[in-house]
Amino acid sequence: MTVTAQMIKELREATGAAFLDCKNALEKYDGDIEKAKTYLAEKGLATARKKAGREASEGLIETYTHHGGRVGVMVEVNCETDFVANTDRFKELAHDLALHIAFAKPLYVDVGDVPQEVLEAQKKAFHDEAKAQGKPDHIIERIVEGRLNKFFSEVCLLQQPFVRDDEITVGDLIVQVVAELKENIRVRRFVRYELGEALPETGEGA
User: For the whole model, what pTM was predicted?
Assistant: First the structure.
């Protein structure tokens, strides 16, 4: 099938990919736009994961208040260049992250930021609970692992289901934006205040 300019335009609008990438994807799949979309998405996510180790020292600090000023959030989101930091897409991401933190109340950025003493206490509690329920020793370890993963999805920002789309995690959302903007993006830290709380809920990445 001949790949037309209209097909390329449609694919570019749907994916945000470069002209040549869209043309090559359509040629690869004989003009099948849906297959080309899937290919570009997979290619973009793979590229995004490769960028994860790159230095990200630019970015911005986003703030968000909710419930008539009763909840406030400040989050630092880093990228590689000030050019990307000033794009609407990056600003939208930072806003969405601040909004998510306000609603979902994470305590840590990611799993690696959970203090060892907290992790060990959770493991012991889950182990003791499974033991008290009479679970066999050979499956207690799997039970503890499953409950730890659930714990992480509740308290770690990047593991939480995204409030605007619970089909993806916050980490998945960031990977998608990395694929779009072609730069490494990371949440460095955040703080969440709620009126009347003794201490703010804070999280800081490694």
Answer: 0.71
